[in-house]
Give the backbone structure.
Amino acid sequence: MTSRPLIAAALASAALLVSPTVARAAPDAGTLPMPPPPAAATAKAAGAPTDAGTAGPTDAGTAAGTPAPARAAVAEAPPPPPQKVAPETFDKALKAYFDGKPRDAAGPLYAWLETTPRTDDNYAWGQYFLARSLIDLGLTHAGATYLARIARERTNPQVLPRALDALKGLTDRPHDEVMIDEQVFGALDLGFLPDETGAYAHYQQGLVDLRVGNERWANTHFSKLPETSAEASRAKFALLVTRLKQVKDPPEEMVKDFLTLSEDEKLTREARNEAALAVARLRYEKKDFPGALDAYGKVKLPELDPGRASLYLEEAWTRYKLGDLRAALGILTTLDAPSFRDEFMPDKYLLRALIFRDLCHYLPAKRAAKELTRRYADSLEAVRNREDLSQDMRLRRAANAHGGTQRAAKFVSLLDLEGERLGRYAGSFGERLFGHLTRMYDLSHAEAVRVYDARLQDAVRQEADTLLRAAEQVRLMEYEVGLKLYERVKKGAQVVAAEEEELLSPAQVAFKFDNEYWNDELKSYRVRIESRCIEETP
């Protein structure tokens, strides 16, 4: 692993905070769809006659011999206008919601909203409780759409803070980033918000400024965050990652700032781990390999968690640079565990070949080098033939594993899941609400897929570049090993003295590996292998 890819990995690991939006949604994405125009208006706009004695659009279809079911598929009739509902419908729906029956509340609330003018004092409350009912039923995107409408319309100052709090709670799961992060929190007037919601809005607006390269404006927003808030720590991390993109030789002060954030309890465990990884990668870049290894040790994972494949691989490279070849080979054994066999790690085979080469095990080195081209043969062939790389499953899986592509893929999966869940409520929601939500999810899914496809195209190209670099290094390795295999041994040469094996402490126990992997043992594999290198006597 070269040094610059480590910096790239540090930036990619923080993409959740500051990565620019690769594909932006359309301005109306996430908003409620407008109902189709009346049939008469459509016919008039198209210039079609509507007299009784003249064939209109429907009659024309009949005259052409088109069956009635086919005509319905081609041009679906608009839904009938909503029927007037009694004013007490709103009160009954609220009672059902507070009685813990969101399914019974959703349909009446939507029917009431359809026939109630937007100037009604309770209109925003109706939107809010419809959103909460949908969220309680597992339709979080539909609920978020109504909450976002409340935030944009701002017709009721009493409802707005509640809607923003509910939206903030939805940002911890896959969500429409354009609708919530940019169109709502990124565009709010911040003077009237409660402290907690206002801090989150300042943080989001600062991120928007960072994405467009305006750090000064971002600092203006970040300076208004309470120093003890989690948003203040996240803002510091975002600023550090942004500055890291702009410097070729990061100063030691930046490393110390990342180290401080890795110990900041206000951050989530995931954010602290990302800060610790940034420290490790920057120290590796500066060739401070002991310091890098120490930083990798600060990454805290849940108990019995198998860990991250990228973390193990980076630690293996660090140990290789320190000359601890047997420990590095043990970590590579860890990466052969079933938990990591689908991971995209072409560097793993390159590192294994380097270790065998350094220990003068030339045939194993050659086999390790060939394993890369064998395992990724289909992907390499797709790259050489200039095929659509997004259709290659290995490259696609690697692209989906991190960054904006991962978030977009999770949001598409969420819409798929909630779209299927919506079918359960067809009877209880009523025809109008069910049809409205079906159209909403169809439109949102189409836009989410468009955003995902755009991000995927860029991501798979990056993964393909990583694979090509590793394949090129492996070819050089095979050539070098081939020369070593046929190199003559000079007279008087002797085998290098074996290194003394480190003894186990009284608290340690060693077991022979029998190809069985346990999560609590993954970090402790070591390989006993002797060097076959020969040193020439003077």
User: Anything to note?
Assistant: The mean pLDDT is 82. The first helix runs from residue 3 to 13. The beta strands are 494-495, 534-535.
